[in-house]
């Protein structure tokens, strides 16, 4: 019989050698045939152990004779699996978590250490409070405290503490450790939100509408494979988080216009723009990653959109677009600090150095793609990060260097108005708005000299 914990262990071993968590998980799941419940368990154990890695290491430090980083790599991975089940999987009885972890140690090269594994996990159980509180010894320093308790690197917590109170930063940590929700965006050129809502209801999928977003539905019950939901093949909808849906509303494209989407793939926003224009006009979908553009093409085909044209290359180098666009969308590559809940390993991959590199790239993309806009036209800058160096600093520097441009706050009747700030840009905070973290700024070119 196939043991789901062994499968999870094999995936985690790959992750600790540098593989992306989703790639490592797909690889092991493809090799075995598992029941749905076992598949879900493997997924939960892999993503959970990666996400909670810092907390799990702190437990090994506290309960082991050696620190986590001094343990043999595979043993550390096995202990992560054991502690993860004890701390975060209430459905799994503690005895089952301990016994299966001891078994994993025995079968993966540590038959002599089963007593140690057993003793360590049982000591943890003895110290767990009645309400299931994790018995962690935490430092006083606020960033380290939140970082260890909620499993984030200190530098990310520091970025949040510079913008939020301790209590709100903690709410954000908790939000980012939840499973992500799935939102749909209905394609009004093919159907209506009422029809989709009804069709999903008939398939026993519960949904709810979302404030300010006329075409959004959030799935609130387990939907199974998304491609099997009613309306997928017919192009009635795409999966797109509600905050990402705000972006094209802020751009507000009109039928017949020329729009350049400068970082377009895989096309969530390009297709939204084409829909908002009634598929009339031209949307240039530019991106430097050809494989992601192929995905965009598939999406446009499924949604039956004709107004999208693809352009492969670096948007900092296109000169053919100068002064051609009514509107430009720059949905810039970013560190993704607003979507950490969607990628278990993202918090460990980004660093302050990658943020600085991205910030530089974003500034270059913005100053170049701004040249695409006609006099009087609009540029929307968006990211799914919450780092000021990639957001506020990029816009502030651009405005300081570009007298022909001004920031244009959303109007009171716009779906984005609820997220606007006194500086004119918009910021979606997940712990306040219950959607992915996003930053958006709408800029207007005032005359033709730039
Ligand atoms: C945030 S993603 C875009 C998501 C897309 N707008 C959507 O809604 O589906 C950023 C994209 O920027 C692209 N990119 C990064 N650097 C670029 C550059 N210099 N020129 C063009 N595209 C670039 C990446 O390939 C990636 O697809």
Kindly report the average pLDDT value.
95
The backbone outline, from C-alpha atoms, is globular
Helix segment count? 18
Total beta strands: 12
CATH class of the largest domain reads Alpha Beta
CATH superfamily of the largest domain: Vaccinia Virus protein VP39
EC number: 2.1.1.176
Catalytic activity: cytidine(967) in 16S rRNA + S-adenosyl-L-methionine = 5-methylcytidine(967) in 16S rRNA + S-adenosyl-L-homocysteine + H(+)
Enzyme class: transferase
Pfam families: Methyltr_RsmB-F (PF01189), NusB (PF01029), RsmF-B_ferredox (PF22458)
Describe this entry's structure for a reader.
This protein is of the alpha/beta class and 450 residues long. The chain has four domains: 4-137, N-utilizing Substance Protein B Homolog, Chain A; 142-177, no CATH class; 182-239, Sun protein, domain 3 (Alpha-Beta Plaits); 242-445, Rossmann fold, CATH 3.40.50.150. 45% of the residues lie in helices and 14% in strands. The chain contains 18 helices and twelve strands. The strands form two sheets. Strands 5, 6, 7, 8, 9, 10, 11 and 12 form an eight-stranded mixed sheet that branches. The chain has a four-stranded antiparallel sheet with strand order 2-3-1-4, with helices on one face. Helix 1 (4-16) packs antiparallel against helix 2. The structure holds S-adenosylmethionine.
């Amino acid at each position: 019989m196939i043991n789901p914990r062994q499968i999870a262990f094999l995936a985690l071993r790959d992750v600790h050698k540098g593989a992306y968590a989703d790639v490592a998980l797909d690889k092991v799941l493809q090799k075995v045939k598992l029941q749905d419940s076992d598949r879900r368990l493997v997924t939960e154990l892999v993503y959970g152990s990666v996400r909670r890695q810092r907390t799990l290491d702190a437990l090994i430090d506290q309960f082991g004779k050696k620190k986590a980083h001094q343990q043999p790599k595979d043993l550390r991975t096995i202990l992560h699996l054991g502690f993860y089940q004890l701390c975060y999987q209430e459905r799994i009885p503690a005895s089952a978590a301990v016994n299966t972890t001891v078994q994993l140690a025995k079968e993966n090269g540590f038959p002599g250490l089963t007593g140690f594994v057993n003793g360590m996990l049982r000591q943890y159980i003895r110290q767990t409070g009645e309400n299931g509180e994790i018995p962690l010894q935490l430092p006083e320093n606020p960033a380290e405290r939140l970082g260890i308790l909620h499993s984030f690197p200190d530098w990310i917590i520091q970025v949040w503490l510079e913008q939020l109170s301790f209590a709100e930063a903690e709410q954000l940590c908790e939000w980012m450790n939840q499973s992500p929700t799935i939102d749909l965006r209905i394609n009004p050129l093919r159907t209506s939100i009422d029809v989709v809502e009804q069709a999903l209801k008939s398939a026993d999928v519960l949904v709810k509408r979302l404030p300010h977003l006329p075409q959004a539905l959030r799935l609130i019950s387990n939907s199974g494979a998304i491609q099997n939901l009613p309306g997928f093949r017919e192009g009635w909808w795409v999966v797109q988080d509600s905050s990402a849906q705000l972006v094209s509303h802020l751009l507000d494209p009109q039928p017949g216009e020329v729009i350049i989407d400068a970082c377009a793939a895989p096309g969530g926003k390009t297709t939204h723009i084409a829909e908002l224009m009634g598929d009339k006009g031209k949307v240039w979908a530019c991106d430097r990653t050809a494989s992601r553009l192929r995905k965009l093409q598939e999406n446009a085909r499924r949604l039956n959109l004709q107004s999208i044209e693809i352009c492969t290359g670096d948007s900092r180098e296109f000169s053919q677009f100068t002064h051609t666009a009514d509107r430009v969308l720059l949905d810039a590559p970013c560190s993704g600090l607003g979507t950490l809940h969607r990628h278990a390993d993202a918090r460990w991959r980004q660093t302050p150095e990658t943020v600085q590199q991205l910030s530089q790239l974003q500034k270059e993309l913005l100053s170049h793609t701004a040249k695409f806009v006609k006099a009087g036209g609009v540029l929307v800058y968006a990211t799914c990060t919450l780092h000021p160096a990639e957001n506020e600093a990029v816009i502030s520097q651009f405005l300081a260097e570009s007298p022909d441009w001004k920031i244009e706050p959303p109007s009171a009747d716009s779906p984005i108005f609820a997220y606007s700030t006194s500086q004119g840009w918009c910021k979606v905070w997940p712990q306040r708005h219950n959607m992915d973290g996003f930053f958006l700024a709408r800029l207007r070119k005032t005359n033709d000299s730039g």
